[in-house]
Amino acid sequence: MDLVAVEELREDLDAFCAEVFASIPRKDSRAWGNCYLRGLMLDGRRKSIQPMAQRLPDGNMQALQQFVGQSPWEHTPVQRRVATMVSQAIDPDAWVIDDSGMPKAGTESVGAAHQWCGALGKQAVCQSAVSLHAVTDAASVPLDWRLYLPKEWAEADDERRAKTGVPEQVGHRHKWRLALDMVDEARSWGLADQVVVADAGYGQIHGFRRGLAERGLDYVVAVPGGLNAHPGGAVPEVPEQEAGTGRPPLPRYRTPARSLKDLALEQGRGALRRCVWRQGSRGSMRGRFLVMDVRLAGKSAREAALADAGGSRAWDGVLPAQTLIAQWPPYEDAPTDYWLSSLPAETALRRLVRLAKIRWRIEHDYRELKHGLGLDHYEGRTWRGWHHHVTLVSAAQAFLTLRRLDPKRSTSV
To answer: Hey, is 35 helix, strand or coil?
Structure first.
């Protein structure tokens, strides 16, 4: 977007900024927030502060650096207002959990460490952020962010943490737990509950799925085909108690658990159902899918079922049922993609598949967040600066998304 195009949006942008930055007490700070958003939206290869300030007629590098890196304004009320506006406007079909790596040249930036970087597809020095998005087939906008702190940062000496401003109470926390924290925060903001969608990095973790179930939230999550499970109709039996032994044995399934892949292969191609889940730019998106009930096996599943039953004496041995969705393309020897869903058994196949596939929107809009709005261009090193920057990027994308969906409407709600 060139300077002329940005100036043409100035009136609407001013109204948008007045609303989302209302919690920032200083008028001059709110003005620099407006300036920063215009810098993010302007064309340019780099969206770090110095080049943005040079492109803007009213740009001031020192003032923008102070606003993002040192100013004490709280990012959470701004993110909350953006999340509320977006959720009211787009009526999301799901909340999508995602994470992304932001490559760094060294380990001085807060949270930067040698770890898996999805942006580069390899291990590299980067920051890693977990995000929660409101999603429809037409749009997605981040609702919240969490910066992942590797163990080496959580255990770092006080000088290193103090230098980057990491709060004392913040330590190492698994990404799936950060995701649940964001779900809790979104609900505390009064946002309506949504089906949660996530990739296999989250879906394969029993604690994550259980955490959603404990919150009364349904999910459709990708899983690896190697997870072990029993068919949904399998019934456990209580083995005969040997003479002279103590407590009666726990119920057991007669046959060993098998991988989701093997369970799907046992059903065969005859069980496949055709499904068109949405219209893409090149026509209908369609495929063949298998749907069946399964009961995930494993230590975590058994321990959770025991706890839910109140102990071994009350447990009947039945593991919770979930719906397996497997995509099996023609000319493939086995299904290529697997998802687990907690939605009711009568849920239409088209809805199940549409939710399973809706992460495509995140991948599409992450390109705008990174390449168009400079999500990973911030060069500051502090905890505060990072959170300010990602919040401002979220606000810029929200403004552009609302304009794209309805150019004639006001972006103020």
So the answer is: helix
